[in-house]
Structure formats: C-alpha cells, structure tokens
Amino acid sequence: MTRARDAGLDVTRPTLLLATLTALAGCHSSSPASPTHDAGALDATPGDAIAANALDIAVTGCASFQVASGVESCSGPAPFTVRFSPVGAPDLTTFVWDFGDGSPESSEEAPAHTYTLPGPYDVSVKAGSASVGTIPAERPGLIVVLPIGAGGACDVEAQCATGLHCLCQSGAGCGPAFPRGICSLPCPAGFCGYQSVCATYSLPIGTVPDGGSADAGSPSSPICLADCSSGTCAPGFVCQNLHQGGPAASGWVRACLPAGAAGDIGASCREASGALDPTRCASGACSTIAANGFCTASCQSPLTCPSGTACARMAAGQLCVPTCTTDRPCSGDPSIACQAATAADAGVDGGFQIVTGDPSENYCAPAPQ
Known about the structure:
This protein is an all-beta fold. It has no helices and 24 strands. It has strands spanning 16-22, 30-32, 54-60, 64-68, 71-77, 80-88, 94-98, 112-115, 119-129, 133-146, 153-154, 165-167, 181-184, 196-200, 223-226, 237-244, 252-258, 286-287, 294-295, 309-314, 317-322, 336-340, 353-356, 362-366.
C-alpha cells in the first residue's frame, strides 16, 4: 500500500490512483502496478514504506471513471478540469507534467489542468531529486473528455457531439445572457434524442453554422435543448416552459435556457425603451395586460397552457397565467396581483375566469381596477 504525497489535497477523499513502478531498483524504466481507487492517507499503516524509485499518479475531479481491459480512465464533459498529484517517496522534489494535449508542461507538484476538446489523453510525469535521480510515470488514456450533448454549454464547435453546432458562442452577438454558446441543431422532425427535447425558441442569432435555416429558433425550425422535465439544469441554466417543436406540435416541453435569456409565463417583457419585446419570453408572446408587459401564450382551443399555469378568460382573450407560489409571489409588476379566479358569471369586466386548470388555486393576473 502506498501513501499519497500531501500536496495540499484532501487525501481523505477517494481518488483515482494509477500506479507505475520501476522494474528494477535504480532504473528509470517503469511498469504498471495494480491500480486502486483510494489513495487515502487513512489507509496507511505504520509499516507502510515507499520505495525510493516508486512513482504513481493520482487524479481528482473525475465526473466518472471506468476500467476497461485493466486500464482505468477518468472522464468528464468538455471543458474538463482535473487535478493531478504524484504519489511517491517524500524526497522527490522536482516534477515535469505532460498533459497529453499539446499544452505547455507544468513543473507544479500538483497541477490543475483544463482539457478543452473531447478525446482521450495520455498523462505522464517525471519526478526526481538529487538522491534518486529522475523517475518517470505514464498512463495512456488516463483522461477521457466527453463531447457535449444537445443543450449543453459550449465555447467552440469542436466541443459539441457529432451533428451539433455551438450556437451563440462568444462573438455571435447573442447578448449578455449567452456568455457561452449552446450545442444544438434544428429539429424540424420534432426528434432530438436522449435527455433532450425539440423546443420552439428563437435564438438571438441569424444563421445556423452549417448554412441551414435562416432562423434557428423559428416555429418552422425549432431547436434541440436539454430536457428538464424530470430534473434540473446545469449551473447557469434555468428550466423554462417552451412550445413543443415539430410537425403539428401543440403541446409544451420543459427545457434548459441560460439564466436571463428569456422569462417564463408571467415574467415582465417590456424593454427599458418602453417597447414590448416577445423575444424576452420563452413562450414567444408578450401581452399588454400588465404595466411591464406579461409573458404568456394564447390558450384559445385547441391551444393549451403548460404545467403550473391555467388558461384564463380575460378582456384581452384567453391567456395562460401562472399560479402564485413562494418562488413566484407576483411582486414584480404593480399591476399584477396574486388572486383567486372570479366567479363564472362575473363577466369579462369583473376579472378573469379559469377555462382550463384548477379554479381553486390563486394566480398571478391583472389586479382588479
């Protein structure tokens, strides 16, 4: 059993330990030793000893790891940041790390490194001291960087999975809500694949990188986004209600958008200039029923409203309104209040009536005048 060098890491946590030991004492050639998944110092015993010519590699930050044909690999999505540390005799004082991706070598004892592009990478280190000379350790395929799926954040096209494009990447002019791009593609057939959905959302960008549709988010060419109907979104993204894309689609999907890219049902949609901006709404519709504008959608039959909202009959027509919740207290607009539906015989001037939905709930809707 070997003990990890204390390089400022929390060695009591599990790490992926990949070992190479020299074949003969005093020689600089190395051969692989049996790897273990735990380099924790708590496993060490007073009788443990580290040979002067032994050198292992430990890595932390893996999203997952696997063993194939006796070879362990640490994997995660691009861009993928991990930290390496040497495991060897305490008198090793110099280190030269090669991360296998063409980046400059590092002389830090426990360097952190970010891999930008998908693919497998070999990692090696040469450690030494005046007393033991130089000892190499190498692990082919130690790091596996995975491509980004539909709806994931990207910086360059090469990070996205096959067939996807990095839309709204830096410099595309998509605005401050897009500090990074989104891996996506048009889905005119309505199908996107595992953990993604076909959603109608007009990205603030004019063209798709492959020269396809003139508007990647138009109703005729919806895009693939990450599905959040049964989970949460990645950091920096929020789950929104969006119109389902595809031929004759009339329902709704839950998909992840960058925080601030668009508001859900009930959000304000008036610009600082005073103009109403439907692109500020995930639903694509901005109504005048509120002083600051009101993101909504028509629910005139056969159209429907998404989960968490109801179809209400008001003077402006049949529109989707959200329920009042702790997370949505209806406090962002002076003309909107949390209120119960009006009696069915009150008429359109008496408030709003629930056409479809739960009439016992309270909803964010225009306050009675």
